[in-house]
Amino acid sequence: MASTSQTINERTARLCAETALFMRDHVLSRVSHDLRSPLNAIHSWAYVLERKIDNADTAAQRALGGIRTGVEQQVHLLESLVDKTRAETRKLRIDRAPVALGELIAQTVDDARAALADARGVSFAVQDGTGAAALDADRERLAQALWLMLVFAAETSVQGASVAVTANATPTGAQFEVKWRATPQALTDEALEHVLEPFARVQAGEPQEIGRHAWVLALCQRVAEAHGGRFEAPIAPEGEEATMLLGVVAA
Predict the structure, then answer these.
(1) What percentage of the chain carries pLDDT values higher than 90?
(2) Residue 65 and which of 23, 83, 95, 200 are 20 to 30 A apart at CA?
(3) Residue ranges of the Histidine kinase domain (predicted)?
(4) Secondary structure of residue 156 in the 3-state scheme
(5) What is the number of other CB atoms lying within 10 angstroms of the CB of residue 127?
(6) Are the CB atoms for 182 and 158 separated by under 8 Å?
(7) Sign of the four-CA dihedral 94, 98, 101, 104
């Protein structure tokens, strides 16, 4: 029994580490993108000012030089620190092989129960329509993405809630849907059990921009895209039904 518990804890720790890794990658990507736009604008306006300012105005020329130097330093930091740090995760490696979807779903649901759902009293109502279907995909990455969807649903559920899990397969792909009644306040309720790291839970509870999802779900997005599919996690108001959808395409 102790050995089984240790194995579950080790797998949960590994899944949490993968989640944190891709959240970090997503944050760095946002930082790189969102900083480059204003830096480009500053550089462009400095060029405009250069044409307007008298070359004999040494103070103004020094100011422009300082602006250019500052922009160049920031761009160098982005390239040397942010972009290089993302190098290992920028392109997600996918090792495709036939995956028995029914077995994958059952094991992943069990992992999510052991990680958090059982401690929260959250139940998973599974409707597996995949039958004996097999999909040419990366089993481990699919399991990670589905596990994160289930754990996130549990994290945003009150004690004793129910989460609906539906899976379907076609000859060309598969789709996993998770539905539950969202209670974002549960993310930071210290009276409840948690498995996702505090920073991820706090950010997930903040208002999200239209078309963007919580940073902690970045792994799901990357896995879907690497399999030629899509990931959807629309924002759900407090107490209303939330839905996450992971679709993947066979090679």
Answers:
(1) 56
(2) 83
(3) 30-250
(4) coil
(5) 10
(6) no
(7) negative
Q: How far apart are CA 228 and CA 173, in angstroms?
A: 10
pTM metric for this prediction: 0.81
pLDDT band at 85 (very low <50, low <70, confident <90, very high): low
According to DSSP, the β-strands at 134-137 and 230-232 are unpaired
Q: What is each CA distance from 171 to 127, 141, 174, 227, in whole angstroms? A: 19, 20, 8, 14
Q: Has residue 1 got a pLDDT over 60?
A: no
Q: Which of 127, 29, 45, 149 minimizes the C-alpha distance to 78?
A: 29
Would you place residue 24 in the very low, low, confident or very high pLDDT band (cuts 50, 70, 90)? confident
Q: Residue 165 in contact with residue 130, Cβ under 8 Å?
A: no
Q: Cα–Cα distance between 109 and 105 in angstroms, integer?
A: 6
SS3 209: coil
pLDDT tens digits, one per residue of 103-127: 999 999 999 999 999 999 999 999 9
Strands 230-232 and 241-249: antiparallel
**CA-wise closest residue to 226 among 249, 206, 199:** 249
Using an 8 Å Cβ cutoff, are 167 and 154 in contact?
no
At 94, phi and psi to the nearest 5? -120, 125
For 145-172, what is the mean pLDDT?
96
Q: Quick check: 234 and 215 in contact, CB under 8 A?
A: no
> 25, 90 in Cβ contact below 8 A?
yes
CA triple 231-16-236, angle to 5 deg: 40
Q: Is 119 exposed, middle or buried (0-12, 13-18, 19+ CB in 10 A)?
A: middle
Q: Could you give the CA distance from residue 227 to residue 101 in angstroms, rounded to a whole number?
A: 15
